UniProtKB/TrEMBL annotation:
<protein>
    <recommendedName>
        <fullName>Bile acid:sodium symporter</fullName>
    </recommendedName>
</protein>
<feature type="transmembrane region" description="Helical">
    <location>
        <begin position="291"/>
        <end position="316"/>
    </location>
</feature>
<dbReference type="InterPro" id="IPR038770">
    <property type="entry name" value="Na+/solute_symporter_sf"/>
</dbReference>
<dbReference type="GO" id="GO:0005886">
    <property type="term" value="C:plasma membrane"/>
</dbReference>
<feature type="transmembrane region" description="Helical">
    <location>
        <begin position="12"/>
        <end position="30"/>
    </location>
</feature>
<feature type="transmembrane region" description="Helical">
    <location>
        <begin position="65"/>
        <end position="86"/>
    </location>
</feature>
<feature type="transmembrane region" description="Helical">
    <location>
        <begin position="165"/>
        <end position="183"/>
    </location>
</feature>
<keyword id="KW-1133">Transmembrane helix</keyword>
<keyword id="KW-0472">Membrane</keyword>
<feature type="transmembrane region" description="Helical">
    <location>
        <begin position="230"/>
        <end position="258"/>
    </location>
</feature>
<feature type="transmembrane region" description="Helical">
    <location>
        <begin position="204"/>
        <end position="224"/>
    </location>
</feature>
<dbReference type="InterPro" id="IPR016833">
    <property type="entry name" value="Put_Na-Bile_cotransptr"/>
</dbReference>
<keyword id="KW-0812">Transmembrane</keyword>
<feature type="transmembrane region" description="Helical">
    <location>
        <begin position="36"/>
        <end position="53"/>
    </location>
</feature>
<dbReference type="Pfam" id="PF13593">
    <property type="entry name" value="SBF_like"/>
</dbReference>
<feature type="transmembrane region" description="Helical">
    <location>
        <begin position="126"/>
        <end position="153"/>
    </location>
</feature>
<feature type="transmembrane region" description="Helical">
    <location>
        <begin position="98"/>
        <end position="119"/>
    </location>
</feature>
Length: 332
């Protein structure tokens, strides 16, 4: 339990990137070059994500449409509704930019790797998790910009065009992903030989984006705008949001009659938000805005969800008696 609750190495590196950006932020011409290098790394990252995804898993998982509809509802309906409902409470204590970041987090798709990993550990429907999480990321490239346009920039004075953002996201994320799928039979065998290198590149790309985002935020005076009390409120808000989502994710699938394996899949896929896709999207959608404050909520939520889901997945993997069910026989 203590090991699961401890910060993992990637989380420590994320914190170090924030500290490094606070001490030695990249700025000026160097920042422009760093951004171009980061965009290339992001494109390669999503190319590798496309090459990872098994077509057999897609075919097997896509048939389970009821499960995918429910995960979609959690990700792109329930999360945004809760984020919007929280506005009267969060806007006064967090400020506009941090609340934008909180709401943007609610608009993001689910994670891919961690959703699949936790579903597998807890003995859920892995094929459905692969398909649902991947579909969430693909459809999120189009839905997230529209939600941001309508609910964030639609109520501000910014002249924001979601079409341009969707095109940019498509070129940066979706096209490399599809190309990776097309070339999977050639690329994936090599990826299997160097899984450590692939994982390092995956995490390294996110670290680059976080460093760049926080560098620009520090230059713009981030730490003069966010104090410890505000950070506490943000952590508390993320924790409450995750608790509500997880409670609904625990009981709603049971009420709808899903079997145990599907309940586990819905719980893990429907309760997460992606950092890997979220930070690159934020770069495009919030160009010219205080990006560090925009991505801070998803960074905090990301760590909380990993720690909580790690404990729950480990607990379910070792249990043989159900935790909750209509007829007391469903979910372990």
């Amino acid at each position: 339990m203590l090991k699961l609750l401890a910060f993992d190495r990637f989380t420590i590196l994320l914190i170090l990137m924030v500290i490094l950006a606070s001490i030695i932020p990249v700025s000026g011409h160097a920042a422009s070059i760093f951004e171009m290098v980061t965009n290339v790394a992001i494109a390669i990252l999503f190319f590798l994500h496309g090459a990872k995804l098994s077509r057999e898993a897609i075919v097997e998982g896509v048939m389970h449409w009821r499960l995918h509809v429910l995960v979609f509802a959690f990700t792109f309906v329930l999360f945004p509704i809760l984020g919007l409902m929280a506005k009267p409470f969060l806007l006064p204590i967090l400020g506009q930019e941090l609340y934008w970041g909180f709401l943007f987090m609610c608009f993001l798709p689910s994670t891919v790797q961690s959703s699949i990993a936790f579903t597998s550990v807890a003995k859920g429907n892995v094929a459905a998790a692969v398909c649902s999480a991947s579909f969430s990321n693909l459809i999120g490239m189009f839905i997230t910009p529209v939600l941001v346009s309508f609910f964030i920039f639609g109520q501000s004075k910014h002249n924001y065009d979601p079409t341009t953002s969707i095109i940019q996201i498509t070129l940066l994320l979706l096209v490399p992903f599809i190309l990776g799928q097309v070339l999977r039979s050639w690329i994936f065998p090599y990826m299997k030989k160097v899984p450590g290198l692939v994982k390092a590149f995956d995490q390294g790309t996110i670290l680059m984006v976080v460093y760049g985002a926080f560098s620009s935020a520090v230059v713009a005076g981030l730490w003069h705008q966010v104090n410890l009390l505000t950070l506490f409120y943000l952590v508390l808000a993320c924790s409450i949001l995750l608790t509500i989502i997880m409670l609904l994710g625990l009981f709603v699938p049971v009420w709808l009659g899903f079997n145990r394996a599907d309940q586990i899949t819905i719980f893990f896929c429907g309760s997460k938000k992606t950092l890997a896709s979220g930070v690159p999207m934020a770069q495009i959608l919030f160009s010219g805005q205080p990006l560090g404050m925009i991505v801070l909520p998803i960074m905090i939520f990301h760590q909380i969800q990993l720690m909580v889901c790690g404990v729950i997945a480990n607990y379910w993997s070792k249990k043989h008696e159900p935790v909750v069910s209509k007829d007391k026989t469903a979910l372990e």
